[in-house]
Design goal:
The structure holds two protein chains of two kinds. By secondary structure, chain A is of the alpha/beta class. Chain A is built from 20 helices and 33 strands. Chain A has five domains: about 90 residues, Ubiquitin-like (UB roll) (Roll), CATH 3.10.20; about 160 residues, Alpha-Beta Plaits (2-Layer Sandwich), CATH 3.30.70; about 140 residues, no CATH class; about 180 residues, Dimethylsulfoxide Reductase, domain 2 (3-Layer(aba) Sandwich); about 90 residues, Barwin-like endoglucanases (Beta Barrel), CATH 2.40.40.20. The chains are: A alpha/beta, B alpha+beta. Chains A and B meet through loops of A and helix 3, strand 2 and strand 3 of B.
Chain lengths: ~750, ~210
């Protein structure tokens, strides 16, 4: 605690807080142009200057912490002149095109220009010819750019792409792609979000609507389990285009949260439906006559509740192998930890100084976990250990140690990791004995991870104070998933690691908590809800009865923060919803959201009604979204089993892994997102599989065949190729182990 | 301290500000009513009017406007169906697609779509006004920063439907008319004040 004064009034700052942060918390206003809460100060605008009694010159409040007894003045004639002059300089030759600019009405420069009353240009500089650059999904207009560097900071510190930089050249300065002619990045679009002027704009949105015409609908992203907050910005189209509401863009509260490219650019997946009574009858009959409902995890908690109630009412079975695998994993986990859920959160990752990622390609599975890791690495200097059979290029700026293990040997690796991390932990004698008995030679040899690598992990994380272990979704469908879960739980229970288990889909966790799932025997007639079946309903693919997609529904999700997050209707849906079907089958609820307050308390839900759930961040980043699920105590009666023989994956192995910004059947439908459907492999893989770049190939999986094009990816290493899963029917392959032995044939060469 | 304002006494009844108009009693009997009608109907003025009509008839110089063959000129600031104007020099559309007219429209009858064109400029692709809703208030013309949307003189917009629209093609000055110099500037609200050039402050170019 540091006591100091602002304009003569006493203010208390926490240790590590800057003058600006303390002032804002105390309700004082200091103008800024380049300040971004989530990054280190850019210190480029100099608008936040203040006077103190201990310095002669003006100091930047955004990067200076106060000292005890300091007297700060934030408002004086001298400061006002200084700030006005800064604004005059910002406005030199700034194009007078507010009339067409996309930022107009929501522009920091516009606001501050009016605030400081800059009504004429007092300074002059010879104008430059600057052309608008098209960087794919992003348009950059250098003449509008005020060089605040927010975009550069966020790209480097939060996202980790490090794809743009400032080209210094006095008045000629501009933002340019780093080390490349064209922008080569994951297109998260966070630079667009933070841009205070209209310099960086989504090229799809550019000049299509104005800020004041769009109504903002707070929602939760439908694509991965991070459950990011976003705003669907909706407006009607013109009369000749039907005057229908349409989502024009997605924005986020960029000060406090970060969105990936799929969230930002993948919003146009809604499809309209109609009330066809005949088809509704068909759906009811199909449900009455079938033995099971198979569904994906692209549903809200309320819908999951409806399905569970239908199960109880009709005695029908519920199939969702993905959520069932998660359920199994977590129940094994709880049997050791004594808690229903894991203890880590995305915030915990951000604050970590030691991170281990195990068993998942995190950059594409859950980009926000990656951003949190980048933040931790940049802000806390976190050591990041990445353990996976495949190296990930997108993590190269963050990872301090890459541990490559053989495919299928996850159980051995986690056992050895647990042994390393639990070396000095206070565990039971049996467990000590268990780890002593581990056949280290065998496990290390089979998994191809040497003793010295574990020793290095122990050493580099030894000094870390806040540690996180991130478990990817590879292990959820591993044959030995339960034992892996128990070993993970050992680590969380007996060390200071907190654990995050990355769920594969948006609401896998919600479904796993709410539904009593049955083993999918694939027998009898099945109704598919966004999944395969004999009668199809839902919002994905060619269905018999169309139900609303997630951006046309209200309800809640459970994110990997164990947070119950509300989402709202962006585009009103004209057809039937699942609740109509449930009501016709004997359940009673006026709206789907009537189920929100009935979510089971014994799973940690609270009885809050949907309309009582907030969906916003406070001024200082307070999370006012939904509520946190209670981590319920459960009986810890599990026993860690012996490690089974580690399997070998020889021959041609592919990894089910979506390309950047692709997650599911929704993202596959989005106009702006790149749809790479190729099998990508290294030169080594191509040689082993005897295929060449550009070959049309047929991939023979255990259960199906796929025809794809092979693309030689110079970045990839090793003998495992990446096969996308978002473009298969219903957009998911989360019901089996992600590595798979396949046969690959060149098309035309079989016969 | 509480301050009590003293009001002037507005109670008019006490100051006899009102008085009763002396009205003749209404006729009650049939005979009285008949007398009143005759005294009101049969007067010399009737013949004055008849004489004027007869005089003008004989002159054969009729002032009646033969609508719709003939139309009276309307005031230049009259607000009838909108027009979209072009720039005199280049022939480009003046409309920059800022959307202010759409925003200010109090009857919410303007809708537009814009996009980025091949030259990286904002292009208006669709523009429509629902004349069934439009109240011809002139706000759109007043708010337009480019003098692009103005009111024209076409006031005949009878329609068989309540909702009927003008679209961009109807309102935009055709290029041949522009070249022939037949685009009229609108002098109503929002137009440039005469002599406004003198008030423009120039940016210093001291380099």
């Amino acid at each position: 605690m540091i006591n100091f004064t602002i304009n003569g009034q006493p203010v208390i700052a926490n240790k590590g807080e800057t003058i600006l942060q303390a002032a804002r918390k105390a309700g004082f206003y200091i103008p800024t142009m380049c300040y971004l809460e989530k990054t280190t100060p850019c210190a480029s605008c100099r608008l936040c200057v203040v006077e103190t009694d201990k310095t002669d010159g003006l100091i930047l409040s955004c990067q200076t912490p106060p000292t005890e007894g300091l007297a700060v003045t934030i408002d004086s004639d001298r400061l006002r002149t200084e700030r006005t002059n800064i604004m005059r300089l910002y406005d030199v030759n700034h194009p007078l095109e507010c009339g067409v600019c996309d930022k107009s009405g929501a522009c920091d420069l516009q606001n501050k220009t009016l605030e400081f009353g800059v009504s004429a240009q007092h300074f002059s500089a010879k104008d430059q010819h600057r052309t608008i650059e098209n960087w794919g999904l992003i348009n950059y207009d250098p003449s509008l750019c005020i060089l605040c560097e927010k975009c550069v900071h966020v790209c480097n510190e939060i996202i980790g792409d490090d794809a743009i930089e400032l080209q210094f050249g006095g008045y000629k300065s501009s933002v340019i792609p780093k080390n490349s002619e064209k922008l080569d990045c994951t297109f998260c679009g966070e630079c667009i979000a933070v841009c205070p002027v209209g310099a960086l704009i989504s090229s799809d949105f550019k000049y299509s609507a104005n800020a004041w015409e769009l109504s903002q609908i707070p929602a939760t992203c439908a694509h991965c389990s991070a459950g990011c907050s976003l705003m669907y910005e909706v407006r009607h189209t013109s009369n000749s285009l039907g005057a229908q509401p349409k989502i024009y863009r997605v924005t986020n509260d960029f000060e406090h949260n970060t969105l990936c490219g799929a969230g930002r650019f993948g919003f146009d997946f809604d499809e309209q439906g109609e009330k066809n009574e005949l088809e509704f009858e068909n759906a009811l009959n199909a449900l009455k006559n079938s033995s099971a409902i198979r569904f994906s995890s692209l549903i809200t908690n309320e819908e999951a509740m409806i399905l569970q109630s239908l199960k109880e009412k009709l005695g029908i079975k519920l199939y969702n192998e993905e959520a069932r695998a998660y359920q199994r994993f977590m129940s094994a986990y709880s049997s050791i930890s004594g808690k229903s859920g894991f203890g880590g959160t995305l915030d915990a990752i951000k604050q970590s100084d030691g991170i281990i990622v195990f068993g998942g390609r995190i950059t594409t599975d859950n980009p926000v976990v990656r951003y949190s890791m980048t933040t931790a690495a940049r802000h806390n200097g976190a050591k990041v250990v990445y353990m996976h059979p495949l190296e990930d290029e997108l993590l190269q700026n963050v990872v301090t140690q890459f541990v490559k293990y053989e495919v299928g040997t996850e159980e051995g690796v986690i056992a050895m990791l647990a042994k390393t991390l639990l070396a000095n932990a206070d565990i039971s004698d049996e467990m000590q004995e268990y780890f002593k008995e581990l056949d280290e030679g065998y496990l290390c040899a089979e998994s191809n991870v040497g003793d010295e690598e574990y020793a290095r992990i122990a050493k580099s994380l030894g000094r870390a104070k806040r540690k996180t272990l991130i478990i990817g979704s590879d292990v959820l469908n591993h044959k030995r998933a339960s034992n892996i879960a128990r070993l993970c739980a050992m680590i969380e229970t007996y060390t200071d690691f907190s654990i995050v288990v990355v769920a594969p889909s948006v609401n896998t966790i919600g479904v796993s908590l709410l539904c009593d799932l049955d083993s999918d025997m694939n027998s009898g007639s099945v109704v598919g809800y966004n999944a395969s079946g004999d009668y199809l309903m839902g919002s994905v693919g060619d269905v018999n009865l169309r139900l609303p997609s997630i951006n046309a529904q209200e309800g809640t999700f459970v994110s990997i923060n164990y947070q119950v997050l509300p989402t709202n209707v962006a585009i009103a849906f004209n057809g039937y919803v699942l609740n109509d079907i449930a009501n016709a089958l004997g359940l009673e609820a006026k709206n789907t959201i009537d189920y929100t307050s009935k979510l089971p308390l014994n799973q940690g839900f609270s009885a809050k009604a949907f309309d009582d759930l907030g969906n916003f961040y406070g001024s200082f980043g307070e999370d006012n979204r939904g509520y946190i699920l209670e981590n319920v105590d459960v009986e810890a009666n599990g026993v860690v089993e012996e490690i089974e023989d580690l399997p070998e994956f020889n021959g041609t192995v592919v990894y089910h892994c979506n390309p950047v910004n692709q997650f599911n059947a929704y993202t596959a439908r989005c106009k702006q997102l790149e749809k790479d459907t190729t099998l990508r492999g290294s030169a080594q893989f191509a040689a082993a599989a005897k295929i060449n770049d550009g070959d049309k190939i047929r991939i023979e999986f255990a259960s199906e065949m796929q025809e794809r094009t092979f693309v030689l990816d110079s970045v990839l290493k090793g003998t495992i190729a990446l096969v996308p899963a978002y473009d298969v029917a219903f957009g998911a392959m989360n019901d089996k182990y992600r590595f798979e032995k396949v046969k690959i044939m060149r098309m035309g060469s079989e016969s | 301290m509480h301050h009590e304002e003293t009001f002037t006494d507005r109670n008019v009844s006490e100051q006899s500000a009102y008085f009763y108009v002396d009205i003749e009693a209404y006729p009650t009997t049939g005979w009285d009513k008949f007398k009143q009608v005759v005294s009101r109907a049969v007067k010399g003025e009737l013949f004055v009017g008849l004489w004027v009509v007869m005089r003008e008839m004989i002159k054969f110089d009729i002032h009646t406007v033969q609508y719709p063959k003939e139309k009276l000129p309307i005031g230049p600031r009259y607000r009838a169906v909108h027009k979209l104007l072009r720039l005199w020099e280049s022939g480009y559309e003046r409309c920059i697609g800022c959307g202010l007219c759409e925003k200010i429209c109090i009857s919410d009858c303007i809708r537009m779509d814009t996009r980025i064109d091949e030259n990286s400029r904002k292009e208006v692709t669709e523009y429509s006004i629902n004349l069934g809703r439009c109240i011809f208030c002139g706000y759109c013309a007043e708010v337009c920063p480019e003098l692009a949307i103005v009111h024209g003189g076409r006031y005949e917009n009878a329609s068989e439907q309540r909702a009927h629209f003008v679209i961009k093609d109807d309102m935009l000055t055709p290029l041949d008319l522009l070249k022939a110099g037949e685009q009229n500037e609108y002098p109503g609200f929002g137009a440039i004040i005469p002599g406004s050039d003198a008030s423009v402050k120039k940016t210093p170019l001291a380099y």
